[in-house]
Amino acid sequence: MPAGLYKFANLADNSSMKMKLKELMHERRLRFRQVEIITGIKRATISDIANGKTRPRFDDLEQLAEGLGVMIRDFVESKYL
After folding, report:
1. Which long-range contacts (CB under 8 A, 24 or more apart) does 51-54 make?
2. Distance between CA atoms of 79 and 9, rounded to whole angstroms?
3. Alpha-carbon distance 68 to 60, whole Å?
4. Domain locations in the chain as residue ranges
5. CATH of 3-75, one of 1.10.260.40, 3.40.50.300, 1.20.1560.10, 3.40.50.720
6. Confidence class of residue 75 from pLDDT cuts 50, 70 and 90?
7. Left, alpha or beta for 42 (phi > 0: left; psi -120 to 50: alpha)?
8. Which residues touch 8 (CB under 8 Å, ≥6 apart)?
9. For residue range 12-59, what is the model confidence (pLDDT) as tens digits?
């Protein structure tokens, strides 16, 4: 992964990511296990992201966006997006 993309994921606001993930899961009535199946990301990692304990790596962010049918920018609040 290009270094710039890793920085992008690390600089993203973690609170907006966890809120968006929780919102999507609530709207679609998804549990962590179901998101794990849809995205291929371990349930523990999804839980950590949703609870603000960790920031997703860029590839996890891509998998979340693809699996949930949203754009990566939907997870990130930035004046540049």
Report:
1. 51/18, 52/14, 52/15, 52/18
2. 15
3. 12
4. 3-75
5. 1.10.260.40
6. confident
7. beta
8. 58, 76
9. 557 888 899 999 999 999 999 999 999 999 999 999 999 999 988 999
